[in-house]
Amino acid sequence: MSKRHKKLEVNQRCLPDTGSSPGVIYLDDSSLEPKLTLHRISGAQYTSENIDSFAGVYESIKTTKQTFWLEIKGFKSLPMFDLLQNEFGINKLTLEDITRTHERPKFEEFETYAFAVSRMLMLNEEKELENTQVSFILMDNALITFQEHYVDCIQPVRDRLTAGKGTIRIGGASYIMYAVMDVIIDTYIEILGGWGDELEEIEDRLMDKPERSIMYDTQLIKRHLISIRRVAWPEKDKINDIMRSDSPFIQKQTKIYLKDAYDHCIQAIDLIDSLKEISVSNIDMYLSMISIRMNEIMKVLTIISSIFIPLTFIAGIYGMNFSREDPVTGKLMPMNMPELYSPHGYLYTVIIMVIMAVLQLVYFQKKGWFK
Amino acid sequence: MSKRHKKLEVNQRCLPDTGSSPGVIYLDDSSLEPKLTLHRISGAQYTSENIDSFAGVYESIKTTKQTFWLEIKGFKSLPMFDLLQNEFGINKLTLEDITRTHERPKFEEFETYAFAVSRMLMLNEEKELENTQVSFILMDNALITFQEHYVDCIQPVRDRLTAGKGTIRIGGASYIMYAVMDVIIDTYIEILGGWGDELEEIEDRLMDKPERSIMYDTQLIKRHLISIRRVAWPEKDKINDIMRSDSPFIQKQTKIYLKDAYDHCIQAIDLIDSLKEISVSNIDMYLSMISIRMNEIMKVLTIISSIFIPLTFIAGIYGMNFSREDPVTGKLMPMNMPELYSPHGYLYTVIIMVIMAVLQLVYFQKKGWFK
Amino acid sequence: MSKRHKKLEVNQRCLPDTGSSPGVIYLDDSSLEPKLTLHRISGAQYTSENIDSFAGVYESIKTTKQTFWLEIKGFKSLPMFDLLQNEFGINKLTLEDITRTHERPKFEEFETYAFAVSRMLMLNEEKELENTQVSFILMDNALITFQEHYVDCIQPVRDRLTAGKGTIRIGGASYIMYAVMDVIIDTYIEILGGWGDELEEIEDRLMDKPERSIMYDTQLIKRHLISIRRVAWPEKDKINDIMRSDSPFIQKQTKIYLKDAYDHCIQAIDLIDSLKEISVSNIDMYLSMISIRMNEIMKVLTIISSIFIPLTFIAGIYGMNFSREDPVTGKLMPMNMPELYSPHGYLYTVIIMVIMAVLQLVYFQKKGWFK
Amino acid sequence: MSKRHKKLEVNQRCLPDTGSSPGVIYLDDSSLEPKLTLHRISGAQYTSENIDSFAGVYESIKTTKQTFWLEIKGFKSLPMFDLLQNEFGINKLTLEDITRTHERPKFEEFETYAFAVSRMLMLNEEKELENTQVSFILMDNALITFQEHYVDCIQPVRDRLTAGKGTIRIGGASYIMYAVMDVIIDTYIEILGGWGDELEEIEDRLMDKPERSIMYDTQLIKRHLISIRRVAWPEKDKINDIMRSDSPFIQKQTKIYLKDAYDHCIQAIDLIDSLKEISVSNIDMYLSMISIRMNEIMKVLTIISSIFIPLTFIAGIYGMNFSREDPVTGKLMPMNMPELYSPHGYLYTVIIMVIMAVLQLVYFQKKGWFK
Amino acid sequence: MSKRHKKLEVNQRCLPDTGSSPGVIYLDDSSLEPKLTLHRISGAQYTSENIDSFAGVYESIKTTKQTFWLEIKGFKSLPMFDLLQNEFGINKLTLEDITRTHERPKFEEFETYAFAVSRMLMLNEEKELENTQVSFILMDNALITFQEHYVDCIQPVRDRLTAGKGTIRIGGASYIMYAVMDVIIDTYIEILGGWGDELEEIEDRLMDKPERSIMYDTQLIKRHLISIRRVAWPEKDKINDIMRSDSPFIQKQTKIYLKDAYDHCIQAIDLIDSLKEISVSNIDMYLSMISIRMNEIMKVLTIISSIFIPLTFIAGIYGMNFSREDPVTGKLMPMNMPELYSPHGYLYTVIIMVIMAVLQLVYFQKKGWFK
């Protein structure tokens, strides 16, 4: 129960204020203090440092040939956004999109930069799905990423930067953007894998006993799958947009790698559809098992009732007190229940009862009710 | 019940008269007296006044450089429409569209103006969905809006004009049109959020007790969702049409903002689909809970019947009155119910009954009926 | 029942003969004698007369500047079709399409004329849906319409011609064609409105009592909706074809009006979809109500059976006839049903029975079965 | 049962051998000896003869101006295919397509001929659906048709050739191809009409009594509809391909007629969809009727059980044998069942029973169980 | 059960590691030692040998005019991939795709080669579906195929090479690629045929007895069909891509054959859809049969209970012990159960019981419960 509610809240927190002016930085009490990390990459050399302000950073970007990756986590600093608007020349509509963290994945090109949004999905400790936004501002030799929370799933990219193997240090800013997006998509697939396991486990429980929780749990996963599908589809479109764009900020060789991320995204969508089919089939199985159980319960009731109710009736007949003789005149009334006074009346009655029961058992057997 | 009926009426009131001539101003007894408000905006300066007639307004529009927003609420004035047709040069088909308030959202370009229709959705005090029409006539430096009722949801736009912050006073007539449309779309999302809450509340009741009203209420919301979807889709297309049009009345920078409204519209459609999925899943849950309850009811019935009916039969057997001795001859008939005359007959019978009951309980336990 | 059958017949009568030669005038015994009406329109002047033959009409059309509308109802006259083929120059495939009255709505252009088909839907006195064909041949200043039956729904067009208001007398032949098509589409919406009312009424009955006829009636409307949808979709395409065609027979200003008819057609489709959703939801409601009723019935059965079957068993126990004393020796057998001989045996038994019943009632109450 | 099985076999016989080489003539034991018929048409003159070999036919085709139609039924003659390959210049892939009679409808153009495939559907005497292939090779003034079986549905074309009316003798080879295809499509519609009748008849039985066979029969028709739909869709595409092709073998005026066949094909698809809807609605009706019957059965059981079980309990009470006096001491035990010794005990008991029964009847009446 | 689990594992093994660097050869403990087979084809001559290394092969390919087909099964050899990368010039992203054996069917063109992926489906001995990857590298006169396992379904291609008939030895490398792909698609159809048989067998069991396993087995096949559909669709797209590509490695005449493979792929998809419909209809049949059985069970219960419960009540009435005379005063109490003392009381009672039973039987007969 609590799980499901959390999910819906996530959906609804994403609603903008009705009628508010566009282009406004959107901060509330839950906004976090910004944490800044600056990665400087130039082939062999790579440094990463936490910084307090990026006041002089734009200067370095413009004047050196290094690749910069500036990570911004937490938005609670209006001066920071002023700096971005005035020094970096970021459009205020872009800044609004960054801080209103309910955007769908998209890719937009501006004169001096390109802007992209990814949705990062993670399972927190309570196995709830967290849906947060990662925004990218991509410039010639710099990438700025924005996250509303501190926790993320892109540590592998930082690790690969530290390790320095492969293309990561020489691919430029757009390659790092690709790497982050790819990790995010891979996380989708990882989460889907976990749900796949859960669906299998539910299926095992289903075979065991069709209990109410199966319905709840499967519906919950199905609902999660619907949410993730709503993220994966625009994600796919976004990567396609990036591949087909002729933005100068996207290096040609990066596009080859993006094809890979695109394939992964399609794989994720495939997996979502396939898990959805499995959950629907689980629910169908569950409902059919309830019907079958009902059938079985009814068969037990019907067999026992059908056998014993007529027998009880016969016993009731011979439990009647019709008088053998008139209590006043003492005259014999031979028509009243003569069976009771036959020497083998009881025996015959029991034999008849046994025959009736056997006949019914044979009938039910023939109908296949014992199979 | 009454809610649902109101809704259908709304749908049907929207039907035009069969075979009436096109281009006819459509007024009936429920039409309201027009209320006119004229907003004059020129950057720093902003005035808003209620006027009785806009006889000289067209002259001002043509001769000054200010931006005009003329709000018309209520249509019961044929001279007003004559003025619009003759002085403002509005096509009579456009005027018909304005007064026949059942148009789908659309955008049409004419030589001297552009015409657009939005559907304004609001919840009234009885929580019923009101679906009214807002029509826009956009000229070079003037916007005329038309509403059939006095109540609306676009007060935030007027407030922003009064406050004067942001682009609202300097964006021109097309920006104000965008602002009104955006508020209307935001209201969709707000209403959807309310239904999301209602669905959650229904879900809680569902967990509690699957009662008939859950089905009614969910179906009602589902039907509302269908209605709103029929509004949101053409709305999205309309905004797309405006963005792609090369109408001289739409400023270039307004189109950037319209992209934002377009995104909100897609978000609304997303939310509608997602709520629809939730309501379908609620109904599925509900039906499965009814099945499960049926199963439980039948289990209780079957367990109790299966245990007691055979026992009652045994009791019935020993309630039979087969005679121990022939009433006439007095001869003993030892075959008739000798158990009744055994010193421990009662005891043995009770023991057999207990064994039978225990065996059945064990059987049901094994079948998992007590889980 | 009879209603539904009539409908299916309509569908099947529309099948052409397998393997017949194309371009053949198709007349059978049910064909009606032709009734001809000629309308001559020239702005202020308008005359309408029933004629017996249109032998000289083509001559007048060619030589005067008036607008002609020739209405032909009933096809039982081969000479008439010869005249059309030879004098008016109508292609024989067109004539076949006119007489084989099962065509889908379509628009075809020929060198000397344009050909269009509309499907006219009307409810007859028995509230059955009549689906007949109206064919149009449009020439420079003449429109010929063909109907297989005498009854139609286009009287409003004739009335507007008589009244002479609006564009009807000055719009030319293509405007009259538009007017007829528009009336036909408006009739769709009118019929749909009627079904909407019927669905509401069914819904009320559903709330009252879920009886079998609800299923029948809803299915019938659903089936009608499917039929009308199959007409409305190609109708929409046809009007779109006319609007986009550059046929010289369609005046430019008529196309603006056709946009209006197009919008009405989309509205009709919208309404169909919406009524279909409502009928599906009615059926769902109905089935869920049957399930709920079943639950209630079973609860009554289970409560009463569960309470009284065990009590009856106890009563049965003390109705057994185990003997207190050996009938032969007269020896007391104290183990046989000593309860029967206790001074308060009856009282205790009744008290136990009441306790059992109360416990069960409490159990059922807790399970929520009385809610 | 047997019907359904036959159908599935048809589907599976259509599977090619895995990994066989392409371009191989595919003959098996069930192949029939070829029957050849040559039609020569030249306007007024028309001859049709059965021939044994078409050795010299190609020569005649090349040298005379007549239109030839060569019908080949049965493929068991490799020399025939050699002749076709070497003399007529037919590609061996085409010949494979002709003999592997499981192709979907298609149209392919080659340099010296055009190739088309139609699927001929017929009901045999056991009312089973036969799905066979008709292949067409169309050359300048010759048409060759191929059928695997002797029975077909294109007799009307031969009859029209004999009659000589209409375009059939003067339309050229492509017109004859059109005529054959059109007859095949008309046969689809005829078969669909038959199923429509069957569905109606099933519907009548459904109203009468919801028995198991309704489900079987409806499912069978539904499955047939699925098969025919899989044929009708590519057929439609094929005819569209022919219409849009600029093949020199298709005369221009034939394309006008093909538009007619195309319309018929769309009508067939319409009819299929409509029949599918009807069969789905029949199944829904059937399932709802089962539910309703269940409700009725349960109501009977519940009413009778609820009335008589409590009454039986009361009778059971007064059937108990609590002793009036202590059998040993003879002391009166007035607490034991004093009712039994009241002068009107029986009367009061019966009155109470009647009241209980009436109260329950009123309760059930109020619940609407007797409606 | 075990079957289904295996299947899901297959799905999940296909997930890449989150965040791993792209372009990395992916080998794990389950990788097999490579087995290399080199086929050299030059029209008449054809040799096939197992080789240990293909160190000098690239040299031969470049210098001779023969067609080469190098089969590589098992990937556990990094030097092999180095050779491919450095000598053959294969892109490392391609090599990653070859070793990450979870790719969807696709076709990619590079400067010196074309790359394609097919998914090979086979049923292993336990009738489980094995889904493995076959990758193709196509160069001017050489084809390299990659398989992760030793077992495959493409033996027919090798056999045709050995036999030397048809185009196989003269069609070049692209023809061999086509031949392999075509065999793979034919295997799909073969597997589908097997499932078709299984569905028929399930259907027979269904007619026999609706047992739980029918639901399981049908769901299992349905799930398999979903998997195979997810493979067949991109396969179709891939073949279309190859046909439309202007890659120099694809000979023109090969494309004609690819059209054939494309048709087979569409046939497979058709068959999948058709089998899916059949399995859905089986499940529907199954659920309806459960409902019908429930109806029958309930009818038996209701008939027997309704007949005997009232009769038992009557017997209970006359089993009551209302006293005929006051035990204390000995006064006669004539109102207490006078029936018991009537000479024909028993007879009348039995007659009444028989009449009641007969009336109920007639009622049930009329309701059609015995049909």
TrEMBL record, chains A, B, C, D, E:
Function as written in the Swiss-Prot or TrEMBL entry: Mediates influx of magnesium ions. Alternates between open and closed states. Activated by low cytoplasmic Mg(2+) levels. Inactive when cytoplasmic Mg(2+) levels are high.
Gene label: corA
Topology relative to the membrane: Multi-pass membrane protein
Official protein name in the record: Magnesium transport protein CorA
Transmembrane intervals: 297-318, 345-364
A GO molecular function held by the record: cobalt ion binding
Catalyses which reaction(s): Mg(2+)(in) = Mg(2+)(out)
Organism: Pedobacter quisquiliarum
Record key words, sorted: Cell membrane, Ion transport, Magnesium, Membrane, Transmembrane, Transmembrane helix, Transport
